[in-house]
Amino acid sequence: MGSKNQGHTQRVAQLAQQAGLNSQDTKALYLGALLHDLGKAGILDHVLLKAGAPSDEEWVWVGTNPRLGHDLALRIPNLPAGTLDVVLYHHERWDGLSSGVSGARIPTLAQLCCVIDALDAVTNFFHCPQGCLHTQGRVSIKVCKVTVWPNLPKRVSYLQA
């Protein structure tokens, strides 16, 4: 993946460890965060490294990332309960616009990973002065809380201003 993605998985995993969950859920969320983009290994480089927005056809490929990652992660022995759900459902939106899974059917750990993933994307992939990074991300999380994740888990309060 391109240099803009450098360190993304590690940052998402580090934020996941700060969620204040019990030790079993923390481990599952942390490992799920480390594996959440595993499926990108099956997406063509010209799609992943493209400078502009993907075409409609390319979005279909990008949308396979969670399923591909889940299928690969199934081969890893002894993952804690919940880890595979994080990988499979980390792109789901509360309104079901992603793959049709919506609302409370989205596992809580996957919801948390989705929010953390979005926070990292907003604070690290978009150009803004160094001082605004976390503030911009927190503002975006507040906006998304209303529009994308209206029932955002209370556990992500540590991400909000």
UniProtKB/TrEMBL annotation:
Gene3D superfamilies: Hypothetical protein af1432. Its EC number is 3.1.4.-. SUPFAM superfamilies: HD-domain/PDEase-like. Residues 1-161 form the HD-GYP domain. Pfam families: HD. SMART domains: HDc. Keywords: Hydrolase. One of its GO terms (molecular function) is hydrolase activity. It comes from the Bacteria. This is HD-GYP domain-containing protein. It comes from Deinococcus oregonensis.
